[in-house]
């Protein structure tokens, strides 16, 4: 048994990062059994679940259509905000009943919540029926953790709080055969004062470029159309290399040269965004003109308290540079309202910057206290009611700009990668523009996986309607 420690998780050393190779499991305890993996959180977690599914399949398990008929359920969790926690504990409540009816059912938890001391303590105390817990650093050990849990028939907890290694050759069962997630780096060293990620994901460490390029090349061979390069702060890619000078601009260029039709990347921290990156994005047609650039707040006082390392003026300068150099670029952002001590004036400064940038879209959140983070200690006199009012006001503004930006596309013809059948209307297919806008189109399924030219006919806040242009 190994339980997490936030104190250990926060340590950063200069020790060299180890690259390990995954070795396949020879366990076959899954033969004849079904698994279900439920994923919460960001793209990184989605991708981890693709690795988890592949490991389970190596063990003989097959995917269940629903958790109700699974023999093994794994919750891959997110710790970013309180409501992510609540969702997981809510689902665990349902699973408790299922487990009572079917005692042979194995249930496990992994992901960012598993890295939190408070969560693991609660599990050991109140969720004794949960069979196993593992963390973000030992996904590659899933087979042995699960085997031990089955053999010993007692709760198996194996969570490492460390800086983390890099695992290569992990098996992967991808959700899509059109677009793929590709990790380029792990962890985060920014330690924004509100954020739990540096504690749950370890030190910032970059994958070797050769391994990334090889992965992208093999995706091209398998007919993938799009890759999204993943990291908590992709612009810092390569900063940890001691033996060579190779950065995000170099990587973007090399990935573009593989010939993959679309390259995307998330998430960019404004601090590390270089001019070289902007130039590379502008000069390669297959690097999509879409940048997610979280601002978090428009108040310098709050940005400082958040430890974001830039002022609103720096953000605006970068924003303008990106807009002027990359044609048609769309820029989205993340904003937190109600950070401790955010006054009405601070909030108004956030509204001001939204009015200035007119973002294509923004993901907005009420600040959520995360145990163990520095901001957790700040006193906060502002009521939740007030914070909700601010969020509502902000969202109204964000949505109006989203609609305005979408309306600008009406009548224009844009490239869309068709990904599937539209959720709302089975007669329609849907996909994303180069600028990452969802389009619903009248069309047939044979276009799925293709990039087609689409004329935009109507615009809403969160989607577009369009028709296919032949030829
Ligand atoms: N690495 C990315 C963000 C990852 S988390 C970056 O730095 O931009 C995604 C978003 O969740 C953040 O941008 C932030 O807006 C939000 N977030 C993170 N911690 C939060 C907290 N404690 N409360 C509310 N929102 C939070
Ligand atoms: Fe969290 Fe900041 Fe790191 Fe993003 S850069 S993951 S917000 S600590
Ligand atoms: Fe959540 Fe962990 Fe991602 S906290 S947002 S799943 S890195």
Highest CATH level, the class of the largest domain: Alpha Beta
Strand order, main sheet: write it out.
3-2-4-5-6-7
Content-based structural category: alpha/beta
**β-strand number:** 21
The amount of beta strand, in percent, is 15-25%
What is the annotated CATH architecture of the largest domain?
Answer: Alpha-Beta Horseshoe
CATH fold-level label of the largest domain: pyruvate-formate lyase- activating enzyme
Q: How widely separated are the two ends?
A: 62 Å
What is the CATH homology-level superfamily of the largest domain? tm_1862 like domain
Helix content range = 25-40%
Indicate the mean pLDDT.
96
Number of domains: 3
The molecules bound to the chains, other than polymers, are:
S-adenosyl-L-homocysteine, iron/sulfur cluster, FE3-S4 cluster
Radius of gyration over alpha carbons?
Answer: 23 Å
What profile does the largest beta sheet have?
6 strands, parallel
Low-confidence stretches: none
* Principal-axes shape call: globular
Count the DSSP helices.
13
What does this structure look like?
The strands form six sheets. A six-stranded parallel β-sheet has the order 3-2-4-5-6-7, sandwiched between helices. Strands 17-18-19-21-20 form a five-stranded mixed beta barrel. The mean pLDDT is 96. Strand 17 and strand 18 (428-433) form a beta hairpin. The longest helix has 24 residues, at 384-407. Helix 8 (248-257) runs parallel beside helix 9 and helix 12 runs parallel beside helix 13. The protein is 33% helix and 22% strand. By secondary structure, the protein is an alpha/beta fold. The N and C termini lie far apart (62 Å). The structure holds S-adenosyl-L-homocysteine (SAH), iron/sulfur cluster (SF4) and FE3-S4 cluster. Iron/sulfur cluster binds at residues 188, 190-192, 195, 197-198, 232-233, 269.
């Amino acid at each position: 048994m190994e339980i997490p420690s936030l104190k250990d998780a926060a340590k950063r050393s200069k020790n060299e990062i180890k690259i390990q190779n995954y070795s396949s499991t020879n366990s076959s305890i899954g033969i004849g059994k079904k698994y279900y993996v439920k994923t919460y959180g960001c793209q990184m977690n989605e991708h981890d679940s693709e690795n988890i599914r592949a490991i389970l399949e190596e063990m003989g398990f097959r995917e269940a259509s629903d958790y109700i008929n699974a023999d093994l359920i794994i919750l891959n969790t997110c710790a970013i905000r309180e409501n992510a926690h609540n969702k997981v504990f809510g689902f665990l409540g349902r699973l408790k009943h299922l487990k009572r009816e079917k005692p042979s059912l194995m249930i496990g938890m992994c992901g960012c919540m598993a890295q939190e001391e408070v969560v693991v303590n609660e599990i050991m105390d109140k969720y004794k029926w949960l069979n196993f817990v593992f963390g973000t650093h030992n996904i590659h050990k899933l087979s042995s953790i699960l085997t031990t849990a089955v053999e010993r028939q007692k709760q198996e907890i194996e969570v490492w709080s460390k800086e983390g290694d890099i695992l290569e050759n992990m098996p992967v069962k991808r959700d899509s055969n059109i677009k793929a997630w590709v990790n380029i780096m792990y962890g985060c060293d920014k330690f924004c004062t509100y954020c739990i990620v540096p504690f749950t994901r370890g030190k910032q460490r970059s994958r070797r470029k050769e391994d990334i390029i090889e992965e992208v090349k093999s995706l091209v061979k398998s007919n993938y159309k799009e890759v999204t390069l993943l990291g908590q702060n992709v612009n810092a890619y390569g900063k940890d290399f001691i033996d060579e000078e190779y950065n995000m601009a170099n990587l973007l260029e090399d990935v573009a040269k593989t010939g993959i039709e679309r390259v995307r990347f998330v998430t960019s921290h404004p601090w590390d965004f270089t001019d070289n990156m902007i130039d590379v994005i502008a000069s390669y047609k297959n690097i999509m003109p879409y940048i997610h650039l979280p601002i978090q707040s428009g108040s310098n006082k709050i940005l400082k308290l958040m430890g974001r390392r830039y002022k609103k003026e720096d953000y605006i300068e970068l924003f303008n540079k990106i807009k002027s150099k990359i044609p048609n670029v769309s820029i989205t952002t993340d904003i937190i309202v109600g950070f401790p001590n955010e006054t009405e004036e601070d909030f108004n400064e956030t509204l001001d910057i939204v009015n200035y940038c007119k973002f294509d879209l923004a993901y907005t959140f009420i600040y959520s206290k995360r145990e163990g983070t520095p901001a957790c200690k700040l006193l906060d006199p502002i009521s939740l009611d007030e914070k909700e009012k601010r969020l509502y006001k902000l969202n109204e503004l964000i949505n109006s700009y989203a609609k305005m930006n979408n309306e600008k596309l009406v009548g224009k013809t844009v490239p869309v990668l068709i990904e599937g059948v539209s959720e709302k209307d089975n007669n329609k297919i849907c996909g994303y523009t180069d600028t990452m806008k969802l389009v619903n189109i009248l069309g047939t399924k044979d276009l799925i996986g293709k990039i087609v030219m689409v004329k935009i006919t109507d615009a809403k806040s969160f989607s577009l309607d369009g028709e296919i242009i032949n030829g």
